[in-house]
Design goal:
By secondary structure, this protein is an alpha+beta fold. The protein has one domain (about 25-310). Helix content is about 20%, strand content about 30%. It contains 7 helices and 12 strands. The strands form 3 sheets. Strands 1, 2, 4, 5, 9, 10, 11 and 12 form an 8-stranded antiparallel β-sheet that branches. A two-stranded antiparallel sheet has the order 3-8.
Length: about 300
């Protein structure tokens, strides 16, 4: 008969493997920064020509520069089930519980005989930490455009938006929330309906946990990429200027407004929109994170006055 210690080794190995799998749901800033090195998400294109008027004491002449368009990783959007449980390790404390937002959980008791159709997720929208790494990577293709965000700045923390996020006030009464088929991710016509964007709160009628997390991320991005919304947040927007055309509001299922790169539970090398992304892995603790990439166009300044541009 084998010693007890020997018989326990397979069990110990199994526990160790399980713990490693559980830990893999979290993601660090270093991994997020390295994820910006994605040619597929960047999608760098030359789209036109910009014209500038350059004047010197010797006279004026027209100069040109190349107009480019590419995506920029503006933010990390996390969706998770309990306050303080963001999968982004270094930033999880920003979503900690407070007097108005305690814990989380789904809409039923999770009894095995129940069909739990209501999920709840907190959400954070934080400036992507990989700006410097990304700009060096993008500049290798040519002139690169800056994004709207500042690294590590919290643009939206749902735990600080209690009335809007936990009670759905006033958006539960909006036409977008009351009209079937309006502002939805996916469609029931193609049997791939993930849920409605409004009301932009943390409660989602969805039994699939991955889809619930994705829908909450879409809601958070919808808020932060628009001005003057009835939520507690900072707009994730840049102002246009001569030779610079920033990204606008994110619209669900529309890649021309923004795309998602999954960071966890599975780190993806590419970008897509919901519901085109196939949910492969559900997080064991209800935590998910995506990088939000948005399209920008720009050209290098070559003179004092911008005369216009051709192309897209």
């Amino acid at each position: 008969m084998r010693p007890i210690r020997a018989r326990l080794r397979p069990v110990a190995l199994l526990v160790t493997m399980s713990a490693s799998f559980s830990a893999s749901a979290a993601i660090t800033s270093a991994a997020i920064i390295s994820s910006t090195l994605s040619p597929q998400c960047l999608e760098y294109k030359v789209v036109g020509i910009c014209y500038w008027l350059l004047c010197t004491p010797l006279g004026c002449k027209i100069k040109t520069s190349t107009k480019v368009r590419h995506y920029v990783p503006d933010a990390v959007v996390a969706a998770y089930s309990n306050t303080g449980a963001s999968p982004w390790v270094e930033m999880s404390g920003l979503g900690a519980a407070n007097a108005d937002a305690q814990a989380g959980g789904d809409g039923t008791t999770n009894h095995q005989n129940e069909n739990n159709v209501i999920k709840f997720k907190e959400a954070d929208v934080i400036g992507h930490p990989g700006g410097a790494t990304f700009m060096k990577f993008a500049s290798a293709s040519g002139y690169a455009c800056s994004g709207a965000s500042l690294p590590l700045v919290p643009y939206f923390l749902s735990a600080r938006d209690t009335i809007g996020w936990r009670y759905g006030v006033p958006e539960a009464a909006y036409p977008e929330a009351l009209t079937p088929g309006l502002r939805e991710v996916g469609s029931s016509l193609i049997a791939n309906q993930w849920g409605n964007v409004y009301p932009r709160s943390g409660f989602v009628p969805q039994i699939d946990d991955y889809k619930a997390g994705a829908l909450v991320a879409q809601r958070a991005a919808d808020i932060t990429t628009r001005p003057a919304q009835l939520h507690v947040y900072f707009p994730l927007l840049a102002l246009p200027r001569p030779g610079y055309w920033p990204a606008g509001p994110v619209l669900e299922s529309n890649p021309s407004t923004g795309r998602w790169q999954e960071l966890t539970p599975v780190l993806s090398p590419g970008c897509a929109v919901f519901p085109s992304i196939t949910p492969n892995v559900e997080s064991h603790d209800g935590g998910y994170a995506w990088a939000l990439w948005r399209p920008y166009s720009c050209c290098q300044r070559r003179g004092q006055t911008f005369l216009g541009s051709t192309g897209l």
